[in-house]
Design brief:
eight-stranded mixed beta sheet, 20% strand
């Protein structure tokens, strides 16, 4: 059984920011390379590890992991709104397999997902429902965070299930990161209005969503101009993590702590958990080889922007 992988930074800002043409072209070229890789692999099933940005998951109930039996794109930042092509029976089998390996994973029959899940599906396949997709939520915004060892073990469990499938060509997607610190509210410092949203602010009005999005857009412009107060990008740390993932030995990620990740790479650097889970799943099927790498710190997108593709070695 072969598995393939695409990990990629996502950002809501390409449609709203104006980086230099060379930078925008480089990012688009990386997306094109990932799309060509996915098209040539022709997956019959996608497993997408992704975070959420308070579109479907809130502080009223925030699991570390959740597998979606059915899922719906909420349409934030201009991404598609509507149902994913979620194979419920396959997702149920996966959840049972993971549970039997002593990993507690929540499940959902009406998971709501935002641009973190939908954007890579649109980039790779042209729509959010083109290929059957099991969405796997990995918490990347809300304390407490599980250990990175736990994230790696989740990926290994998922990969063990997928490696046993003889009738599927599975593409693993890890969506998020790398270093970035956008203005996502933190519970400890949020005011009453922000806490009401964090506690259960699903289905915001159009005006409320526009206001949330405008804060991110304004922060990106200030960050590109050097006037924002958010934490800076960490290209050296981003490249070091990508090298670890490419090496096939993921044990060094176990030493990464939530506090240090936030300090060195921003509060939203926790999204790299999706990359770790995806590469751990790939490694569960055997040795793998990275076929493409791209990295560029893009201040206009508030992100250390990375793309990797890989597949199990022949």
């Amino acid at each position: 059984m072969t598995l393939a992988l695409v990990t990629m930074s996502h950002s809501p800002l390409p449609a709203y920011a104006d980086p230099p043409a060379e930078v925008a072209g480089a990012v688009q070229g990386a997306f094109d390379a990932a799309r060509a890789f996915a098209e040539s692999y022709e997956p019959s099933l996608v497993v997408c590890f992704a975070p959420d940005h308070y579109n479907g998951f809130f502080h009223d109930l925030m699991p570390p992991f959740r597998i979606g039996y059915q899922a719906w794109g909420v349409g934030d930042y201009g991404t598609a709104e509507g149902p994913l092509n979620a194979p419920a029976e396959r997702a149920e089998e996966l959840a049972q397999w993971v549970a039997e390996r002593d990993l507690d994973v929540a499940v959902s029959r009406r998971m709501e997902v935002g641009h973190g899940t939908v954007q890579p599906l649109e980039i790779l396949f042209g729509s959010l429902a083109a290929v059957p997709t099991v969405p796997v939520f990995v918490n990347g915004v809300a304390k407490p965070f599980v250990t990175m060892r736990r994230v790696r073990r989740l990926g290994e469990a998922v990969g063990g299930y997928l490696a046993a499938l003889e009738d599927e060509r599975v593409l693993l997607v890890g969506s998020g990161g790398l270093s970035h610190d956008p203005p996502v509210p933190q519970w400890a410092t949020a005011d009453d209005t922000a806490r009401a949203m964090l506690l259960g602010g699903g289905h915001p009005t159009a005006a409320a969503r526009d206001a949330r999005q405008q804060r991110v857009i304004d922060t990106a412009k200030a960050f590109a101009a050097g006037t924002a107060t958010i934490r800076d990008l960490n290209p050296d740390g981003d490249r070091a993590l990508m090298a670890t993932l490419a090496s096939g030995d993921l044990s060094p990620v176990d030493a990464m702590t939530a506090e240090r990740m936030a300090e060195e790479a921003g509060n939203s650097s926790h999204e790299v958990r999706t990359w770790v889970a995806a590469f751990a799943a790939l490694g569960a099927a055997g040795p793998y080889e990275v076929t493409y790498e791209f990295y560029r710190p893009v201040r206009e997108y508030i992100a250390g922007f990375g793309v990797m593709t890989a597949r199990t070695a022949p």
